[in-house]
Task: inverse folding
């Protein structure tokens, strides 16, 4: 009887640790996003989809 209880307890502990790991991984990815957006300055002036800040940064880069 003790052996069966120990197996159930081990399974519950593993389930809890797994759930905690998943929650931690989701939190980490939301808190530290790894999104990188790259813009092509060659078409920044003619594209209406580029933000104004990007257009200004491209102008500064091309002026150098």
Result:
């Amino acid at each position: 009887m003790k052996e069966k209880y120990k197996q159930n307890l081990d399974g519950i502990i593993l389930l809890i640790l797994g759930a905690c790991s998943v929650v931690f991984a989701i939190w980490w990815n939301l808190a530290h996003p790894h999104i990188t957006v790259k813009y092509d300055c060659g078409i920044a002036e003619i594209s209406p989809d580029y933000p104004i800040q990007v257009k200004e940064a491209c102008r500064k880069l091309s002026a150098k």
